[in-house]
Design brief:
Oligomer: single chain
Largest sheet: 7 strands, mixed
Number of helices: 17
Bound molecules: ligand P71
Strand content: 5-15%
Distance between the termini: 51 Å
Number of strands: 16
Structural class: alpha/beta
Low-confidence stretches: none
Mean pLDDT: 96
Radius of gyration: 22 Å
Shape: globular
Length: about 450
């Protein structure tokens, strides 16, 4: 990267623009009230800068758009499928590829193949949908991330790492027969896109071999993970992202992929495996759930855009810009003293609401109070990931269970916003930080039985 004088500058120029509506503060006050103070209920058109998610929100390249015109919409054997299959094999080294319309059907199939009631699945931190698929198979998802991974105040270069001692202890205690698989989410989404080191991935392979367990990657942000390995792990500075990614995958038996992240597409995913018998079983499920194995819930043109996007995400200049932009946003807030989860991850900035709004107790939804204020202040949409999303009441004891983190996530879509947009967000967050004592807590006025943060209604106290 030394050959580029400004490694974090955009390696592209903009050919098509999407105008954004500007609203007034009064309008935004009305809109957030009508949305019951839940940013999921705001219409996208009423949002100026949408940091709700980096999933499916990327801007495609001219090469991807051109690829759409080469879509072969045959039911069976379309050429775009062969292009995608060859691309995934080349990047991952896995033998068998099954296309899916996004990440969760791949998770559904994988968990159906490997889990039975009473089994456990062990990981660094399962993403919400994977966790739900593990649970619906009657199995237990177990997060065994290193302690530093949940500490918002300490620095660690690979906060996504799994605790190898805890992993081995768990396997010995529960016996390997009761473990369906081990899975590492790279990067680890639930603590802010924190990377997993190559050393950790290798160590998991050794444990998996020792106890005869299959080991998979949740590869949604694998290219961002490869970039952090290049930047932070000894011995990888001179390797290409593709070489690093290939080595990461070489230790695993397969992967699930939500291609809406590092696939640089708006919809798409896949499941990849090495085990032929499991692949045959998976194909049967794929036909049942998604469609014929050469399209799996996607149009031919979508398969083409994905094959092209997968390669683009491994371009080092793209990735330096990408992760650089996320850090550009977070560093401005850090400099102003805002409690940002450190180090900043690959796709988002997390604000620690326990330190940002210490006067608002967790059961008064500080994250949602902040998100409502942020929207009114600058039209920026973020989401709360804390008590509203993950808190619950224990069915037996009636005890209220608080999640370890109370954070607001600002996820940055890929190639969509400029650094001027990032400046607006940073300034708005800093503004609010300076008058943080004026923010009040919220209370629930409607609580759905499941995944309550998506549809909940709140009001200010
Ligand atoms: C994110 C998402 C999208 C999302 C999904 C569900 C609720 C809220 C937001 C999706 C992931 C992910 C990882 C590591 C699998 C999926 C599911 N993330 N693994 O962060 O981050 O993929 O949406 O394509 O089914 O906003 P899918």
């Amino acid at each position: 990267m030394a050959t580029y004088p400004f490694p974090e500058a955009e390696p592209f120029r903009i050919k098509v623009v999407e105008p954004l509506k500007m609203t007034t503060r009064e309008e935004r006050e009305r809109i957030i009230r009508e949305a019951h103070y839940n940013t999921f209920n705001i219409r996208s058109e009423d949002v100026y800068i949408d940091l709700l998610t980096d999933s499916g929100t990327a801007a495609m390249s001219q090469d991807q758009w051109a690829g759409l015109m080469l879509g072969d919409e045959a039911y069976a054997g379309c050429r775009n499928w062969f292009h995608l299959e060859e691309t995934v094999r080349d990047i991952t080294g896995f033998k068998y590829v099954l296309p899916t319309h996004q990440g969760r059907p791949a998770e559904n199939i994988l968990t159906a193949l490997y889990l039975r009631p009473g089994f456990a699945a062990l990981g660094n931190m399962f993403f919400d949908t994977t966790r739900a698929h593990v649970e619906t198979k009657g199995a237990l998802p177990r997060d065994l991330i290193i302690d530093e991974g949940l500490d918002t105040t300490v620095y660690h270069p690979f906060k996504g790492n799994i605790d190898i001692d805890k992993l081995e202890e768990y396997i010995k205690r529960e016996t390997p027969e009761k473990i369906g698989f081990i899975m590492l989410t790279v990067t680890c989404n639930n603590n802010g896109g924190q990377p997993v080191s190559m050393e950790n991935i290798r160590a998991v392979r050794e444990v998996a071999d020792k106890y005869g367990l299959p080991f998979f990657l949740d590869a949604a942000r694998y290219a961002e993970n490869a970039f952090f390995i290049k930047m932070r792990e000894e011995g990888y500075a001179d390797k290409s992202l593709k070489e690093i990614a290939r080595e990461m995958f070489s230790y695993a038996d397969g992967c699930t992929m939500s291609a809406k992240k590092d696939g640089l597409v708006n919809m798409g995913g896949f499941l990849a495996l090495n085990d032929e018998a499991k692949f045959r079983e998976a194909q049967q499920l794929l036909i049942l759930l998604e469609g014929f194995p050469t399209y799996g819930g996607l149009a031919g043109r979508d398969l083409e855009a994905l094959a092209r996007g997968l390669r683009e995400a491994l371009d080092e200049r793209y990735m330096a810009y990408r992760v650089g932009q996320v850090h550009y946003l977070g560093n401005q807030m850090l400099k102003a003293g805002v409690p940002v989860f450190q180090p900043i991850g690959g796709h988002c900035v997390l604000l620690d609401m326990k330190r940002f709004l210490p006067h608002i107790p967790q059961d008064q939804f500080p994250s949602e109070a902040f998100c409502a204020e942020l929207y009114v202040d600058s039209g920026t949409r973020a989401i709360g990931l804390g008590f509203l999303a993950f808190g619950r009441v224990d069915r037996e004891s009636g005890e209220v269970i608080y999640p370890p983190l109370e954070v607001v996530r600002m996820a940055v879509p890929r190639r969509v916003y400029t650094n001027n947009h990032m400046d607006v967000v940073a300034r708005s967050v800093i503004n609010i930080y300076e008058r943080r004592e004026t923010l009040r807590g919220m209370r629930l006025t409607y609580e759905p039985p499941m995944l309550r943060h998506f549809r909940a209604h709140l009001e200010p106290l």
